[in-house]
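Action item from last week, closing it out:
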Amino acid sequence: MHIFIQVVIDGVILGGFYALMAQGLSMIFGIMRVINLAHGEFLVIGAYLAWMAQRYLGIDVLMALPILIVVGFAVGWVVSRLLIIPVLERPELMPLLITFGLAALIQGVLTLVFTTTPRITTASYSDSVLALFGYRVSVAKVVMLIAAIVLLGLLALFLNRTKAGKAMRATAENREAARIVGIDVTRIYCAAFGVGTATAVAAGALFSVTQGFYPFSGPLFTLKAFVIVILGGRGRIAGTLAAAMFVGLIESALSGYVPNVGTGLGTAAAFILVVVVLAARPKGIFQLRGVTA
């Protein structure tokens, strides 16, 4: 029973991170119909930015987070405007190849600048452990979970309560109808890519305090985010959160009950589950449409 409860705690924390990590990819796919293969690399960029802010400026990751989100949004907007929008009306393979090339470019630049030495961001609470009723949890992971839930909540409010968010939802539902009612679809696409990138950067910054990272960490993040998007259905935050928690619990359970190899089995199990879901319910477990909370 002790192991089971510890597994649940670890799975929920991991699922919270996965939800924030995957939501950006889910938004971009739901609104633009583009699979961003560089999504994990943007997450790694966020990790390195948080590391530099702490190492060279002495700024804690939580203090740096608002700035990193703004930087991530700006980077996403520019990338979308310069690389994605020009090929959006072409065959679907074109945006896929563009983002694949972008991922390779980012990996190369990060390797050139930081080498392949793993890094980890330190914080005042990095070595602290929360012990309650015999269960131990890293304070850094608890902070990551709380911050992820807060950011997802703010994103839900943005999509449901702001004019820009409602325009994104309308564009996701019907692009041509959105154009007819006067929505600047190109601008919405850039904003959506910017928000998705900002979400990935924020996830990377939070992750950097809990575990080491290096320039080639991105592809695994992208694959796991894609798994969650497939399981949860595109766009909706509730679906992404539920799927992320499910994947997190699976990985945590296998890691807890199958020592040494459990983590690898958890990743494999997630992909096996995707195959089953695609065969049984191609739109995802929750049969979602559009982009909503």
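Closing note: The radius of gyration is 19 Å.
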